[in-house]
Queue: 2 jobs
Job 1
Amino acid sequence: MLNVEISSQTGKDFEGDVLIVPVFSGRERHRLPLAISKVARQVMDENDFKADYGEMVPLHHPNGVKGTRWMLLVGLGEEETVSLNRIRKGLGSAARYALKRNWKSVGVVSPSTSTLDHDAVQSAVIEGALLANYDMVSFKSKGEGKQFSKVEIFSNGDDTRKSRRRLPLIQAGVAACHKVRDLAATPAMDLYPESFAEQAQKLAKQHKVGCEVMDVEALKKGNFNCVLAVGQGSTRPPRVVKLEYKPKEKAKRHVVLVGKGVTFDSGGLSLKDAASMETMKDDMTGAAIVLATVMAAAQLELPVHITGLCGLVENMNDGGAYKPGDVLRSRSGKTIEVLNTDAEGRLVLADLLHYASEMGADHIVDLATLTGAALIAVGDGVNVIMGTDQKLVESLRDAGGASGEHLWQLPIVEEYRELLKSPLADLKNITGIRWGGTITAGMFLQEFVGSGQSWAHVDLAGAWSGKERDYRPFGPSGEGPRFLLEWLAD
Ligand code: BES
Ligand code: ZN
Ligand code: ZN
């Protein structure tokens, strides 16, 4: 694992490739260590740098700061309006810059503010730098991945005990985030239900987590008829993976995490167009989040009993594919008329949520790249949350706010429920109305959740970042495990 050090020094004696120095705009620069503030002031006095949020200036062998090859000034904007998220993301941008320059040994000065707790600021700085430290090159023929060799945080005299204590949680969250990025970026030719399940088995063994893989026979026996139907047009047969982490001491709570694991979504016979299919190898992000989160929780020995369910299928076409008009008898017994084979995620989750509801868990949380409409509603920088238990929704939303992985709640609208009714079967898998597609999809899922069960559903609009920004590279954002771990640890 990457060597991370937290020191209470100023950073002026740092020896390495780059010292990242966050600076506030305005005249409030006196809290920077002296030698460093001199440099920053010079650049600002000559009007080359205003320290606007996200503004960056690299300086080669800066005057008076001897040991570092480069100093990278990064603006955080006005001190009065700064937040932990801005710090995490601002530092993340600077770290991405350093990573691309192939600077290996990195120092970061943690900014002192008058409004935020030092330890929370230090944690945000570490998270920003570590989340940015990611470069996927497994599919390049040349070149090694760019990676930091060392990250040193300088608190400039502030107490570092709390952020040191938090470091394992931060590192586990970052590793899980990167794992989700890896899995979601892996082409569907390499990652399909069986190979995903094999990876899960391997990881589970390493982390001493229980792992059961249900193959087609087991799925038939278990009545996972919707999972089987979605998967029946592919040469890659479906799997359901069940992970079980139990803490050594008696757990206070039992949580079931359920993930949509469509390893490729062609749309089936309701075929997607070429452009919409480009990113559909990432339609298993929910399952990847479940896998990465359970492993991280086990590693951290969190005092929560966690069951993870991954519904793994490939939504493809051949002569055996399921068709519009087919009626499926779901695991719950409710029948579903399939009017669009591209609304497959909700079918897979219908069986899994019904299965999860049998476990008598305190909470069920499902995660799914369920609707394109979620992207229309909130964009790719926010995830949608809805559910039957307002307290649960709010505690997850708070964890999202604290971790910088934002969740925005959409309502369950009872007036819409009749839109899901089918003249032929109990339900149909689309409403036929575009408006409110994220809400009606969530309400479809709700039909399979046990009554009275505390449940929340996360529609992962933020799974794929259409552009590089802050600590996120282009492509899979890896969001999910960090807000879940924050919530579970709480
Ligand atoms: N996996 C997609 C949802 C999706 C699309 C996520 C684009 C991220 C980006 C899902 O299976 C799907 O195709 N949903 C349809 C539902 C529709 C047929 C009611 C959609 O959103 O278009
Ligand atoms: Zn689909
Ligand atoms: Zn899908």
Job 2
Amino acid sequence: MSVTGKTAIITGSNSGIGLGIAEELAKAGANVVLNSFTDNDEDHALAARIGKDHGIEARYIKADMSKPDECRALVEQAGACDILVNNAGIQHVAGIEEFPMEKWDAIIAINMSSAFHTTAAALPVMRKSGWGRVINVASAHGLRASPFKSAYVAAKHGVVGLTKVTALETAQEPITANAICPGYVLTPLVEAQIPDTMKEYDMSREDVIKNVMLTRQPSKEFATVEQLGGTALYLCSDAAAQVTGTTISVDGGWTAM
Ligand code: NAD
């Protein structure tokens, strides 16, 4: 089964890992729907560029993944959904006592609940077309914890649980649901954590990268967005038809420890 002509919706895909996955799926012939909460000319220009580069249909649809109605409307507006990649995510780093309540709510909504809403809207579409792939971008933090990341770790563990339930509810259909668990990937999300982590640990930027981030990653290398795109493509392949309800770590050995 090739992804040629399939439609992939990738949430949070005007940057970082989501954009990397969109590029790999487009390169393999899928039509892609890009998404974020903004509606800038650059967002639409990005979709146009990807469409042109890979000779596929690419669209940008604005939808705020912190809002349940907009999550569901994204799938409706796309009109088709063979591959759903739940990728949108944010981070905030603080101890539990200082963790701002609104940040907790936003992280739970965007990083976890959005995947429930888009999946609920996408499953009927996949059942109708007779094929589907749900790919949730969780994290090594869906399998392991770190201090100062309570909301993120809780949300990502929740996404792994949701992935298993989605897989069980679709187990006898040509639909699979899996979670990709990246270790550290140098995207804008990770860049943004560096100053706060420098403060929490009283360290330089170089020390945070080497001694906080990559200290958990035995390979001592960041994973790349292209590698994550390749993993998503594998999950769409025939070889992965019986791979469901599981996690695939792309973390340089982090969760082997
Ligand atoms: P990023 O900041 O580059 O991308 C996040 C994307 O989500 C952006 O496109 C952003 O516009 C979008 N987004 C944010 N809030 C949104 C909202 N309310 N509605 C719609 N879209 C929204 O970050 P990234 O590192 O590419 O992260 C992508 C995913 O990968 C996240 O779920 C993140 O938790 C996960 N992840 C990242 C790493 C890493 O090291 N970078 C590791 C493990 C997991």
